[in-house]
Amino acid sequence: MFLIDAGTSYIKTLDTSSGEKRIFPVTDRSSYIELKPEIVTGHNASLFKGSKKVSELVALAEGIRTISKEANFIVLDIGSRDMKLVSFYENNFERCDWNTSCGAMIGFTIELMIKYFNKELKNIPDTDKKLDITCGLLGITKFFDGISKQETIEENLSALMNGMAHYAWHFSGKPDRLYLSGGLTQNDVFTKHMKKLIKELIILDRFTLLEGLKFRVSKGL
Amino acid sequence: MKIGFTGVPPYKIIEKYKNLYPNAEWTDLDVPIRSISRSIAVDYIPETTCSIIQTIISNSISLHPDLIIASVGKGKCDSMSFIIPIIRRTLKDAKIIEIENHEQMSRGNPICTSDIPLIEKFNLITDTVTNGPIKKELKISKATAGYWGVPPYDYSLLELFPNNTHIFGWTRCMENGTPNNLELELYIDPKTPTVFYSQAFCAKNILAKELAKNNKGLYVEVDGAIDNSTKEKIKAFLELNNCF
Predict the structure, then answer these.
(1) A55 closest CB neighbour out of B218, B230, B235
(2) pLDDT by residue (tens digit) across B135-185?
(3) Do A6 and A24 meet the contact criterion of CB atoms below 8 Å apart?
(4) Which residue from A minimizes the CA distance to B219?
(5) Which of A217, B13, B88, B213 lies 20 to 30 angstroms, CA to CA, from A55?
(6) Residue A159 buriedness (CB in 10 A; 0-12 / 13-18 / 19+)
(7) In terms of Cα–Cα distance, which of B10, B83, B73, B26 is closest to B53?
(8) Which residues of B touch A97 (CB under 8 A)?
(9) Which residues in chain A have Cβ-Cβ distances shorter than 8 Å to B216?
(10) So what's the ipTM on this one?
(11) In terms of CA atoms, which chain A residue is nearest residue B223?
């Protein structure tokens, strides 16, 4: 069976028969637009007409349940456009949240700024400086204020990611332990800032929602 | 004779003017009217004002009622008091009655706890402001979901909920005929998965967020029309809590 997590910036696919996973940037539309998934989730799910659609939060909740067998835990999925949170208590769904306005565009903003200034993540330093932000756009404003004071671009990019890490931590309820999922798990600078805030950060990958769709298929849902 | 009202004025004053003007056309100025743009209000008040207050200004200016019965005080909100001078200046020949509602006699909540679709519940509750308590019997349901808050600006939000959704918060106070009853406004059923709704830029966001946090509910803040992401969030919350 063919499954798709159609995110804002990246389309992730899973062929359950071969186990093959692929990622397409949304900018490369011709490479994925003809795909015919049986089930689809994500912000761009409506691009795949005729496919069964599943809510992203439901896919995250069911996906993390196949990954973690713990009784109590929280998972935070950070994508380009939003953050999704699900928590379980004594093996039961406890609460969920989905930040689509404040805190929005965090993943997209980080990628945009790194590309705009033509920087590589490996050259971004660690810093304790933090730009206080509540969304990507406000973060950009603070960033440009910073570099106008002759501070380095690299340090301010790191401070931007530190501010976003703090925002994500607050959004999660300041937990001591957290599963982190989504595209930002691939950003070592961001995850390093998160690790300073959270005692135990369990880093997953960007395919958790597809695991949720796979679970649905296995249950015939 | 065109009579507009806002919030929940005391029923006695509604009755008084219904008797004085039996053929008057009554309009709830809180409720959006498709042909009237909310953006009319931004010529008078900041855009960072809640949708309901913007709607009251836009409706008042467009419909030009002869009489406005304006609820003010703790049963409504400070913003209502602040926009009355603007309406007075703009509608010079309209009579405006500012009135507080301190009614504490409970009328009960048969609509809030019934098994009819949530939109119908809201329509019936808003009708009670001018027509008094509902007279027909409604079947009480066992709650599988809860909605806490004021009537939303965008009623399409209500289509997402199951029929066995019980209403809490200020809308419950509306049906009860006691809009200034904080104890009832804070009442919820902790066992019922509840969506805590507030209009953006409304002080009730403080209550909504706190109640949601303490009761594992979902806090939702919406400015104007509800977007698809917020709808998806509510649908997921209801699905993950087995509300259907």
Answers:
(1) B235
(2) 999 999 999 999 999 999 999 999 999 999 999 999 999 999 999 999 999
(3) no
(4) A97
(5) B213
(6) buried
(7) B83
(8) 218-219, 233
(9) 94-95
(10) 0.77
(11) A101
